[in-house]
């Protein structure tokens, strides 16, 4: 069994070392580009929908129960089932994606629906977690609603918001591989091709590429979250320095 595992590792290494796998339409650069394009477009569309909803319900606390419940229902729907339902639409409209496949629309819409729930819920949670005293102080300074949102709530909620975006992005990167089941492009093609041809080196190489891309996405967003956390902590220290000690400790 150990020898078989070693042979598989060697086969995967040889697959990556083969120049054929680094050029052409089925080469790693092209498949990686297809995967990144569908993921970036899906996240951009999801943010256009989810951010306004999350900001509205988080700032006003109106319709929050309905929006969060709908987002959770959307999270429970399997992406594969969404693609299966939307695939006939992609054929009907003859939508061509980066890889020239008609499954592009189905994959795109499924990824958008997958990314919306975590962004909505994290945006709502981040805004509702802002200290009420800070909001009252901002309103006492004469700030209007949109100014409070832009200058106080959004900066303080940014770490939580970015965490939701991180979760959504990693999910999209990993799940977009399912588009290859319906003939779509991206890194999932290697997994489908490897299974169909019994070429397990190709299959494992595709899985490794998807895992590495998901890990890279996680690390990038983790860096942004740490930066946002430091900015929030710095802003908190500035507020404390300006405000001075609480009245009950002033002699």
Question: How does this structure look, described?
Answer:
- The structure is a single chain.
- This protein has one domain: MetI-like (MetI-like fold), CATH 1.10.3720.
- The protein is 78% helix and 0% strand.
- It contains 9 helices and no strands.
- It has helices at residues 2-17, 28-60, 64-76, 79-93, 104-128, 132-140, 145-175, 188-197, 200-243.
Produce a short descriptive summary.
With 251 residues, this protein is mostly helical. The protein is built from 9 helices and no strands. Helices cover 78% and strands 0% of the residues.
Write the layout of secondary structure elements.
Layout: H1 2-17, H2 28-60, H3 64-76, H4 79-93, H5 104-128, H6 132-140, H7 145-175, H8 188-197, H9 200-243
Number of domains: 1
What's the shape? elongated
| Helical amount | over 70%
Give me the count of strands: 0
Provide the residue-averaged pLDDT.
82
Q: What is the assigned CATH homologous superfamily?
A: MetI-like
Structure characteristics:
mainly alpha, MetI-like fold
